Task: structure prediction
Amino acid sequence: MVFDKEYEIVENRFISGITHLLRIRAPELKNVPAGSFAMVRTTLENQYDPMMRRAFAIADIQENDILLFYDVYGRGTQVLTHLKKGDKVSVLAPLGKKFFPENHSHYILVGGGIGFAGLSLFMRRLKEKGKSFKAIYGVRRKEQLSMLDWIKENGFEDDVIIYTEDGSYGEKGLVTKDLEKLIMEKSDTVLAVCGPKGMMRAVMDVAKKNKTPAYLSLESKMACGFGICIGCVIKDTEKNNYVRVCYEGPVFDGYKIEF
Result:
């Protein structure tokens, strides 16, 4: 069931870089699928500029609260930063139709930048089920590690390998640096990926070289979030047609799409 209602903001604060954390009290959403997302209205009541909602991955669920990490790029997300504890925010969620498969023996989660927020709830669910996994978190420099505190506070430090391009934290290099070696360590390995398109293409190159299944959670600008506006289409190379990220996705088989 999809809910469209106003929820109370529990926390809305700056984390690091350009990233903020929005915690919302939403008990109806505490059992949503990992990989689903929310469309959040960034303007106050009776204001319509900017008009459209913004899409954010549901990064975690803690008791009755959902956590959304968001980067401030434009006017919509800038307006969102001014909302404070106790304010109400209009949320349409959970959205999405296809998510990461959960029937494999071992997973490697690869997240780039804010894209790690598209994998974090899935990582929690894998751990709760006792599934074998390793996560890779890559950014350009240390101040962009906006989910570092979340990793530490929730006991995932031993599960996550962190890469920075400039070597300012963790391993120096790209997320693909040791990916092939990690893939070869265990059989029935599946990749779950979310991040910038360039990073996902590089990960897919490694996946194809090793014939490793890979599922991509795609990020896209969305106006509606449920398939009406046709604004977030990508090409399905298997069927030679176009599919909507918000409705047929947001998770796709990396071997069957052109992005």
User: Anything to note?
Assistant: The helical segments are 75-80, 120-128, 148-153, 179-185, 197-209. The chain has a mean pLDDT of 95.
